[in-house]
Amino acid sequence: MTLSLSWDDVLHWRCRQQWLHRPAQAVDPVAVVERLAGVQAQVASCAEQAVAARQARPDPGSVRQAVQEQKLVKTWSVRGTLHLLTPTQAAAQLTLLGAARTWEKGVWQRTFVTVAQMDAMAEAAREALDGHVLTREQLTAAIVEHAGDPSLAEHLKSGWGAVLKPLSWQGLLVYGPNSDDNRVTFTRPSFEIPEPGEAARVVVPAYLGAYGPASRETFDQWLIRGQSKKAMLRQWFAGLHEDGLIAEVDVEGERLWARTEDVDSLAAKPRFDEVRLLPAFDQFVLGPGTADERTLPKEHRAEVSRAGGWISPVVAYRGRIAGTWDGDGETLWDKVPAAKLTAERRRLT
Length: 349
Known about the structure:
Layout: E1 4-5, H1 7-17, H2 29-35, E2 39-40, H3 44-52, H4 62-68, E3 73-76, E4 82-85, H5 87-99, H6 106-111, H7 115-128, E5 133-135, H8 136-147, H9 152-157, H10 165-169, E6 174-175, E7 185-187, H11 196-211, H12 216-224, H13 230-242, E8 246-251, E9 254-259, H14 263-267, E10 275-278, H15 283-286, H16 301-304, E11 314-317, E12 320-326, E13 329-332, H17 338-347
Parallel strand pairs: 1-8
Antiparallel strand pairs: 2-4, 3-4, 5-7, 6-7, 8-9, 10-11, 11-12, 12-13
Helix pairs in contact: 5-11, 7-8, 11-13
C-alpha cells in the first residue's frame, strides 16, 4: 500500500533530515555536507554558518580545516554555483551535470565560446593541471598558450567562471588551496568521474534523503535548473525504483519519490516545532527551491530570492520559511513563538 502523507508531515520530517534539531552527538562538517547533498559556498562565511546551524556545539574553523585536509572539495556544482562537497558527492554530481552538455547549446556558445574552443580548453586544462596547482592567472596563460587563442583570456578571467564550469563538470578541475597571497587556485581532482547511471545512484537518493519526497522535475531543478535530458532523467529514477532504492508515496494527491529506507520514518510523522535562524544561501531554501510555494509563500519570494542571485537569511519554523532576518532583527510574515525566536537569537550572540 502506498504511504499517504500531508505536506505538514513532509516538511516537519525534512527539518530533522536536515539536522535542524542539532543532534546531540558530535556532527563534523563532512557529515553535515554529506547529509545536505552539498553546501553552497559562493560566500564562504555562509557555508560555515550553514554547518554551524546544524551543530549542537559549533566548531569555528572546522570547515576550512576539512577543505585543507581535502575531506571536502570546493567546485562549481549544482545549478552552476560553488559548493562544498565530499569527494564522492563531487564525482557523482559533476557527472550528472556534465551529462547535460549545456555548453553545447547554441545560446551558450553565442554568449561564451564555441564547442571547438571548449574542447581546446579542456585539453589544455587536462595537461596544465596534471599534478599542478595554478592560480587563475597561471591557468589562463597556460590555456591560451596551449590553445593558441588569445580571445579565451577574457572569458577565463571572468569572476563568474562561466567557461570554467564545464571544465569542472568534466572532472578536469576543482579549487585548490589558496595561494600565499590568498588568491584562488585550481588543481585536478583526486577522484574519477563515474558513468551517469552509477552517479545517479549516489545523487538522487542523497537529494531525496534531505529534501524528499520530491518529483523528478523538482530534483532536476535543484540539479541543473531543469536542463537534464528527460529520457536520461526518467531512466535514472526508473532504475532506482526497479532496484528497490526509491519508492512512490502520496503527498496530498501527488505521487512523489522517497528513499525506500525513509518510508518508515516518514510514516512515523515526526514533528519539529523549534525556530531556526538560517544563513544566506542555506540548503533549507535551495533544496526545494524558492519557487516551492509550500515552503515559501509566493508573495514573499522576492524578499528571499533577491537581485544578483542573493538568497536572504531566513527564519524557519515547522518546515516553512516564516520570514527573513539580519543583525538588526526579523521581518516575519508568519507567526512564530517569541520565546523560541529569542532563544535562537541568543545562540547567535
